[in-house]
Design goal:
single chain; alpha/beta; Elongation Factor Tu (Ef-tu), domain 3; Rossmann fold; seven-stranded antiparallel β-sheet; seven-stranded mixed β-sheet; 26% helix; globular; disordered C terminus; V-ATPase_su_B/beta; ion transport; transport; proton-transporting ATPase activity, rotational mechanism; ATP binding
């Protein structure tokens, strides 16, 4: 009898080991090191000491003393020191209770076709009282490299319904155009009008021209509450909200968040264009708020400033956003156009 029990126990242990092996088969479990070595907080930056093997652009989870968690990104590595920029701002971070966890991966966003018709803040968190996005994929917000040879010569047009743009400065698919503006001019109204009226112009090269095959991704950076409410109510009242993905960084949100807002918008647009085969128009307003946040980070790092105190790499950084507009041909036409609004006063 005891022999039977012993065999039964051995079988149970073997089954448990088999189940454990099956459960962890696809997981590469690496322990994450937790650091409590904050030595300095400078503007949007946190400086950590005694960090082992930090990686450039690695995402860091910063846990505050009150239990809240903020995300940051490694900007600079010097020996054992790591400089981390915090996307949600550094207020409340101290060197006593704050601890930081290095994830070992770059910033990725949960993405899905269900994002159409939804509104998100500048970090990609829903602000429309809806549920979180059920991710179909997790994509790197820096985008994927595009083979220049696969780009198609821009011939097809997107009609904005504004004669000055359509006649004098028309938008071809895969192209980007700036709208230069200044304080007091109706750039918000023009942006909202383009979202309402933008449509495809039929051409023999394109397979599907239905409205269901056209989407707009709208990214707003540094806008005030009045402007944010204007955009949201305008889209909802005109029935275009169901084809729009809205990313809004408000003026009272952390300025550092604006660095990732346009990249979230473009990653969403690339997913809808390449995976879901939609025609996507991206509108970003305003890019001077993005440039201001770059200037803030540059000043905190004590870099040599360029013109108007903007960093010398401003144009290089802007090109990483603008060059993600393209018109590529793989199996079908996957079309993706970008309209940026740049407001330099």
């Amino acid at each position: 009898m005891s022999h039977h029990h012993k065999a039964h126990d051995i079988a149970k242990v073997a089954a448990a080991r088999l189940n454990a092996a099956a459960a962890t088969r696809n997981y590469n479990v690496t322990p994450r090191v937790d650091y409590r070595t904050v030595v300095k907080v400078d503007g949007p930056l946190v400086i950590l000491d005694n960090v082992k093997f930090p990686r450039y652009a690695e995402i860091v989870n910063v846990c505050l003393g009150d239990g809240s968690v903020r995300k940051g990104q490694v900007l600079e590595i010097a020996g054992k020191k790591a400089v981390v920029q915090i996307f949600e701002g550094t207020s409340g971070i101290d060197n006593l209770y704050t601890h930081c966890e290095f994830t070992g991966s770059t910033l990725q966003m949960a993405i899905s076709e269900e994002m159409l018709g939804r509104a998100f803040n500048g970090s990609g968190v829903p602000i429309d009282k809806g549920p979180p996005v059920l991710a179909e994929e997790f994509l790197d917000i820096q985008g994927q490299p595009i083979n220049p040879y696969s780009r198609v010569y821009p011939q097809e047009m997107i009609q904005t319904g504004i004669s000055a743009i359509d006649c004098m400065n028309s938008i071809a698919r895969g192209q980007k155009i700036p709208l230069f503006s200044a304080n007091g001019l109706p750039h918000n109204e023009i942006g909202a009008q383009i979202v309402r009226q933008a449509s495809l112009v039929k051409g023999k090269d394109v397979l599907d021209h239905s409205d269901e095959n056209f989407a707009v991704v709208f990214g707003a950076m540094g806008v005030n509450m009045e402007t944010a409410r204007f955009f949201q109510t305008d889209f909802e009242q005109n029935g275009s909200m169901e084809r729009v993905v809205l990313f809004m960084n408000l003026a009272n949100d952390p300025t550092i968040e604006r660095i990732i807002t346009p990249r979230l918008a473009l990653t969403t647009a690339e997913y809808l264009a390449y995976e879901k085969e939609l025609h996507v128009l991206v509108i970003l307003t305003d890019m001077s708020a993005y440039a201001d946040s770059l200037r803030e980070v540059s000043a905190a790092r004590e870099e040599v400033p360029g013109r108007r105190s903007f960093p010398g790499y401003l144009y290089t950084d802007l090109s990483t956003i603008y060059e993600r507009a393209q018109n590529t041909q793989q199996i079908l036409y996957r079309l993706f156009s970008v309209l940026q609004e740049i407001i330099f006063i």
